[in-house]
């Protein structure tokens, strides 16, 4: 990956803050005038790194369009479900009250709550695999979980979603006690 052209602008009015932004094909870094050349080099490197991280997050599947979600489902089905689960459509929807996502197997459609736009991509991938598995097996029986557990981060993603639910008190039912379990 080639480094972009960098323009450094110093300002006497700028006392402490450093910022950067893209302007066409170059990056503009704004620095206090009093900064040494060594500090300038360190801050330019740091700001380029921050911009790259920010842009990578914006391009991640979690922020993808509906078409990108559909493409991701096709990739995940190939990788973990032998290509057998084929979604006819996948789309982001307004936050659901009690679910992270849902599917309609008869139509082959999947709806994903916009609340998942900010989760790590591996968590979104788990949710998509979960819904794709419903295209193969209705319900949550052992045969369903055999498909879902092919995704290597299933347990970790469930834990992440349980934590998110608990933190936000969203009541999505993830990790809800089974009947007969003691509840404090």
TrEMBL record:
- Gene3D superfamilies the record matches: Metalloproteases ('zincins'), catalytic domain
Top-rank taxon of the source lineage equals Bacteria
Question: Per the database record, which ranges form the YgjP-like metallopeptidase domain?
Answer: 67-151
Please name the InterPro entries in this protein's record: UTP_pyrophosphatase-like (IPR053136), YgjP-like_metallopeptidase (IPR002725)
- Please report a single Pfam family linked to this protein: YgjP-like
**Ranges in coiled-coil conformation:** none
Cross-referenced CDD domains? M48_yhfN_like (cd07344)
For this entry, the protein name equals: YgjP-like metallopeptidase domain-containing protein
């Amino acid at each position: 990956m080639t480094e972009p052209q960098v323009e450094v602008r110093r300002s006497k009015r700028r006392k402490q803050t450093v910022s950067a932004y893209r302007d066409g094909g170059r990056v503009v870094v704004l620095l206090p005038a009093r900064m040494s050349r060594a500090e300038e080099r360190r801050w330019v490197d740091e700001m380029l790194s921050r911009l790259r991280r920010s842009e990578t997050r914006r391009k991640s599947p979690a922020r993808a369009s509906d078409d990108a979600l559909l493409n991701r489902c096709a990739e995940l089905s190939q990788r973990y479900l032998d290509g057998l689960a084929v979604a006819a459509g996948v789309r982001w929807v307004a936050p659901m009250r009690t679910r992270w996502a849902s599917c309609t197997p008869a139509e082959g459609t999947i709806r994903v709550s916009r609340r998942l736009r900010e989760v790590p991509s591996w968590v979104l991938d788990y949710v998509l695999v979960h819904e794709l598995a419903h295209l193969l097996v209705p319900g949550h029986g052992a045969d369903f979980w055999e498909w879902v557990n092919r995704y290597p981060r299933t347990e970790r993603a469930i834990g992440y979603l349980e934590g998110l639910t608990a933190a936000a008190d969203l009541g999505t039912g993830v990790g809800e006690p089974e009947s007969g379990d003691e509840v404090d």
